[in-house]
Amino acid sequence: MTESSTAVPASFDAAATLAQISDATAHLLATAAELTDEDLRGPSLCAGWTRGHVLAHIARNADGHANLLNTAATGEVTPMYASDAQRNADIEAGSSRDAATQLADLRESAARFAEAYAAVAMADAWGRGVVRVPGAEPFPAFEVPAKRLGELLIHHVDLDADFTPAHWSDAFTDRWFALTLERFQARDGFPPLRLDVEEEDEVYGVKAAAGDAEVLTVRGPKRALLAWLLGRASGDGLVAALPEGGRGPLPELPSWG
């Protein structure tokens, strides 16, 4: 049994987030339904993965997140994945399946996730702790929906099939921009940067103060900045302003994973 519990923030809206997940799932399924066996053997935007790998990952991720939600609903701990090695093996095993099988798996795993979501909502157990792999540090179940939404929308882009960061909603972009800056703030190897979001007239600092004029400033639309930070875009349309004046190249960033 899991005993850890965290207060659910007032900003968490389970119904609204589920609606976003359902919409993102439907859009992904529509894209997947158009992909042929040959398409699935083609490269994705994830280095070393075909589109088949991406779809297998999305399906197994749905089951993994369903495990976390079932943990919260019942109190019986089921990790998201038995291990990282098993996660990787399952993705590899599913990557070469034909398009019809991939599509059926996506639909069925999404339905299992939705069922688990309803169970944790019924139990009102969003504050209960869940774990990614055995022995890992617990995190609260209310973080699961945002994680699943990110998997759907970011990996949909990875399919390289006419779905781009331009399709991301303002709410998703705002949420994931904040999450991404928080994650990279704690990462070794990330260069000090100021990120100037042009439509907000707001500057954010990563590994540097927002007002630090001694570090490189990268300016552009928020979606374009987020896509670049996540490694889902080359940075076309972004401007890197050097502290001493003029423009320079965009810095190399560590991978999101």
Question: How would you describe this protein?
Answer:
This protein is α+β, with helices and mostly antiparallel strands. Helices cover 48% and strands 9% of the residues. The protein folds into two domains: 14-163, Four Helix Bundle (Hemerythrin (Met), subunit A), CATH 1.20.120.450; 184-248, Nonspecific Lipid-transfer Protein, Chain A. It starts with 13 loop residues before the first helix and ends in a 9-residue tail after the last strand. Residues 23-159 form the Mycothiol-dependent maleylpyruvate isomerase metal-binding domain.
Order of secondary-structure elements: HHHHHEEHHEEEHEE
Question: Which class of the largest domain in CATH terms?
Answer: Mainly Alpha
Query: Could you say how many structural domains there are in total?
Result: 2
- Work out the strand percent: 5-15%
* Main beta sheet: 5 strands, mixed
Give me the number of helical elements.
8
What is the overall silhouette?
globular
By CATH, the superfamily of the largest domain comes out as dinb family like domain
Please tell me the CATH architecture of the largest domain by its name.
Up-down Bundle
The level of helicity is 40-55%
Q: How far apart lie the N and C ends? A: 30 Å
Strand order, biggest sheet? 4-3-5-6-7
Q: List low-confidence stretches.
A: none
Mean pLDDT: 95
